[in-house]
Amino acid sequence: MRVIAGSHRGRRLQGPHGTALRPTSDRVREALFSILGNRLPDSRVLDLFAGTGAIGIEALSRGAAHVTAVESQAESLKLLRQNVAECGMNTLVTVQARTVKQFLTRPELWSGPYDIVFADPPYDLAYKLEDIFQTVHATLTPADAWLVVEHASKSTLPDRLGLATFRKHYQYGDTALSIYSFPAEAIV
Fold it and tell me: Per-domain residue ranges for the chain?
């Protein structure tokens, strides 16, 4: 794994051993950041199910102002912290070592509001996102924020995830990105 573009372009990131963790592929990360385009500079990003931190690090490399990374798995947390430190981004990343549901139900932990929320749950848990996002308070995001969910292309997500409304779907082989907005807005 490597950072694709921006100030840390080409920087190698530590990846998982085995198949327990499924990092977002370079192809899907490149597509994601192309979709985000001008929304990214100076944005505050919430990376849910952060894994190795590759999405958050890429966001910072491309101009995001701050990332809050939420991860509960010990191996993933170790890789996340190592990658953030090796990139010299400790002051730009807040790591929350807890489950996504625990984080989302505790507004005092938030460093938001967040302009971009990225969620990459284990593919077998994507169906639970509707329950997870039901607890989200409106102060998590400003009115024009986006929620991007990475999921298996064969799975279908609901039209609403809490306050967020589905807008667009992109497919890349076995992986898909679904874009939601808070509240409804047109995606160009």
Answer: 26-182
DSSP string computed for 109-169: G-----SEEEE---GGGGGGHHHHHHT--GGGS-TTEEEEEEEETT----SEETTEEEEEE
Write the pLDDT tens digit of every residue in 122-149.
877 655 777 777 767 667 888 889 999 9
Residue environment code for 9-27, b if the CB has 16+ CB neighbours within 10 A, otherwise e: eebebbebeeeeeebbbee
Q: What residues of the chain score a pLDDT lower than 70?
A: 3, 10, 16-23, 125-127, 135, 137-138, 184-188
According to CATH, the superfamily of the domain at 26-182 is Vaccinia Virus protein VP39 (3.40.50.150)
